[in-house]
Amino acid sequence: MLEKLPHKNLFYFGFIVVFIFIGLSYWQLTRHQQDKLIIDSIDSKDFINEISVSDLYDLNNKFEEFTKIQLTENLENIDLVRTWYLRSRVHNGENGYHLVSLYRTNLEEYFLINNGWVPLNKNADKTFLYKNPNFRGRLLNYDIQGVGQDDIPDSEYLFRIDKSFLESETGVNLPEFYIVLIDDCGSGVECINLEEPYDAPHLSYAFQWAFFALCLTIVVLRRNNLITWKK
User: Fold this and answer.
1) Which region, left, alpha or beta, applies to residue 144 given φ > 0 means left and ψ of -120 to 50 means alpha?
2) Would you state the pLDDT for residue 167?
3) With contact defined as beta carbons under 8 Å apart, do 114 and 139 qualify?
């Protein structure tokens, strides 16, 4: 039957493209479902847990990602150790960095903070770096090393918040999570909306790719006289 098709090349090539469109539609639908689960997880963890930095090191505390926390340490017992700028971060359509800070307590325990977004010219109020925030935020997993630019030792810039790299760079042991501030992020520093990266219109894209697949299927079948319209 296929040998008699008037446009065999169109038939074969067309359905290859159709399957690609279907695959893209399924991928976008999967992304939508994953993002919805993450947003639901963030929304469900709205209770503020008052914890110490020692609690972050205690593996018996089964903290989950996005848990909302308030550190209870006396701010006078916390010192800033070092800061970095996390590259290629966008806020309201403007390019910039995330300000990442390493702190130390009087018990020689360390913790890492993502303060928030600053513009490319880094005009954050530098006095903020020496004025401790209230350390209220959410716990996040560290980034996973993947394909891309490696972080550079002794640089003030980072490509990702990589626990292994930062421990090697600073010679300290870090807790299993780092903290993203949710308020009091500092003068010149914009707090991060954690839900924003997961609020993309993946469902709309899924329907678009499915629609393209349907339209192309109809065109291929029509051109090969496998379907006809009734007049």
Assistant:
1) beta
2) 92
3) no
Q: Which residue has the tokens 């109809």?
A: 218
Task: Name residue, tokens 């989950």.
Answer: 64
Say whether both 93 and 126 belong to one domain: yes
Question: With 90 as the cut, is the pLDDT of residue 175 above it?
Answer: yes
Instruction: Residue 197: name the closest of 136, 140, 122 by CA.
Output: 140
Q: Are residues 161 and 81 in the same domain?
A: yes
Residue 56 lies in a domain: no
Does residue 73 share a domain with residue 184? Answer: yes
% of the chain at pLDDT higher than 70:
84
| Residues 6 or more apart in contact with residue 104 via CB below 8 angstroms | 78, 79, 81, 110, 172
Q: How many domains does the chain have?
A: 2
Rounded Cα–Cα distance for residues 96 and 85 (Å): 9
Together in a domain, 103 and 18: no
At 14, the pLDDT band (50, 70, 90 cuts) reads confident
